[in-house]
């Protein structure tokens, strides 16, 4: 029987806003509605062997307006701030142990949301320390009409088996920028 030592991975989310409009004052408000901190607690053999999945765990509301017109849209990108998931000691695990995917948090009424690269894809993307686009052509709207769900998994595809028991932390940066 395997000897299991529990370890925990915590994700902290920060949000940045980048304005790219030269036509007027773009207004963007981001609200993390749920799931600002994501914890993966590997305390059971099944979690250790199969990984942990949190579907639609983080919900982010976007309020966006641009006086230059209705064709203005926004995009959302995600990255890890560090190059690895760092333990409280000298232990690290690779970022590719954590994956993300996005879905439309408005119940399917927002066709602008991407599920990774293709609007109809349902694939997960591995976390990296370079920005990866997770939403393209987000519409003008309010926090209740533009909601992005972010699902997380850890150890599902790239196992955490044989990782040193520790308290691991990675900071996540989400960038929302206006595009023309």
Keywords, please?
3% helix, 51% strand, 180 residues, 7-stranded mixed beta sheet, mainly beta
Description of the molecule:
The protein has 180 residues and is mainly beta. The protein has one domain. Helices cover 3% and strands 51% of the residues. The strands form 2 sheets. Strands 1, 3, 5, 6, 7, 10 and 12 form a 7-stranded mixed β-sheet that branches. The longest helix is centred in the N-terminal third of the chain and has 6 residues.
Helix content range: under 10%
Nearest-integer average pLDDT: 77
What series of H and E elements makes up the topology?
Answer: EEEHEEEEEEEEE
Our Rg estimate from Cα atoms comes to: 18 Å
| Class by alpha and beta content | mainly beta
Largest sheet: 7 strands, mixed
End-to-end separation in angstroms reads 57 Å
Show the helix and strand layout.
Layout: E1 7-18, E2 27-34, E3 37-42, H1 45-50, E4 52-65, E5 73-80, E6 84-87, E7 92-94, E8 98-104, E9 125-126, E10 132-138, E11 147-154, E12 167-179
Parallel strand pairs: 1-12
Antiparallel strand pairs: 1-3, 2-4, 4-11, 5-10, 5-12, 6-7, 6-12, 8-9, 8-11
Task: Please sum up the structure shown.
The chain is mainly beta and 180 residues long. It is 3% helix and 51% strand.
